[in-house]
TrEMBL record:
One Pfam family matching this protein: ECH_1
Family, similarity comment: Belongs to the enoyl-CoA hydratase/isomerase family.
InterPro entries according to UniProt: ClpP/crotonase-like_dom_sf (IPR029045), Ech1-like (IPR045002), Enoyl-CoA_hyd/isom_CS (IPR018376), Enoyl-CoA_hydra/iso (IPR001753), Enoyl-CoA_hydra_C (IPR014748)
Domain of life per record: Bacteria
Name used for this protein in its record: Crotonase/enoyl-CoA hydratase family protein
């Protein structure tokens, strides 16, 4: 599962996923997209994993898509129809890499330092929670290379920041600094530097990992399902979830521990 593009460590229920192409500012080429999809699909089904921390090595979280890789996707083809069909399938493959982040059973915390550019914004938009260092900035930069952002920013970021701000960022490609990102709610917390950022992200991940994994998984499913749907649909979904899962060992453990004033210990989920 680990590759030269991605580093992974798992300890105490927390998976630490690092973008590890720091010699290229974690620019995303085809092997990195493939690794992101594989890693999050695998961690999403791993019963050991109860929370995931996503960070980037080096100076920046990510410079976004590798422009040399992007340019290689537009090689002329004698048949424009076949070229368009192949390009569509490739874009959908790229989208699936970030969809795997959103679909992972465990919550994903993105800890962003330095630049989070282009596809990086797509990636962190698919995460559950975002923290940032004071030097972080976010840039929907696709417009500057004559591309419409197509890996999730336009679909997900509107649920995280005001739509007018999203439109401004997407139309202009300007940088949004960390303080504004915190002010509008894109990031939950600002930290002084990368070291304190990773420490805070790990502490938050451990807090989540200590909770009932069944309850956390249900909460994530309900939140994802309810986004963009009527309240009534979300209520029906969570009612069905609780009707199916409420009578669990986790509920017994939580109640027993609270009455005894002990810390609960929850077993892993099934694969």
């Amino acid at each position: 599962m680990e590759s030269e593009r991605i580093a992974i460590g798992i300890e105490d229920g927390v998976a630490h996923v690092e973008l590890a192409r720091d010699d290229r500012h974690n620019a995303m080429d085809q092997p990195m997209f493939a690794a992101i999809g594989e890693v999050f699909r695998s961690l999403g089904a791993d019963p050991r994993v109860r929370a995931i921390l996503l960070t980037g090595r080096g100076k920046h979280f990510t410079a976004g898509i590798d422009l040399h890789y992007a340019a290689s996707q537009f090689v002329p083809n004698a048949d424009p129809g076949r070229a368009a069909e192949a390009r569509l399938r490739h874009i959908q493959w790229l989208q699936d890499a970030f969809n795997a982040v959103e679909r992972a059973r465990a919550p994903v915390i993105a800890a962003v330092h330095g630049g989070c550019i282009g596809a990086g914004v797509d990636l962190v938009s698919a995460c559950d929670i975002r923290l940032a260092a004071a030097d972080a900035f976010f840039q929907v930069a696709e417009v500057d290379v004559a591309i419409t952002a197509d890996l999730g920013t336009l679909q997900r970021l509107a649920h995280l920041v005001p739509e007018g701000l999203l439109r401004e960022l997407a139309y202009t490609g300007r940088r949004m600094e960390a303080r504004q990102a915190e002010r509008v709610g894109l990031v939950n917390q600002l930290l002084g530097d990368r070291e304190s950022l990773v420490e805070a992200g790990m502490a938050l991940a451990r807090t989540i990992a200590a909770k009932s994994p069944l309850a956390v998984a249900g909460t994530k499913q309900s939140l994802n399902y309810s986004r963009g749907r009527p309240v009534e649909d979300g209520l029906r979904h969570v009612a069905l979830w609780n009707a199916a899962t409420l009578a669990s060992a986790d509920l017994d453990e939580a109640l027993r521990s609270r009455l005894a004033k002990n810390e609960p210990e929850f077993g892993p989920l099934d694969e």
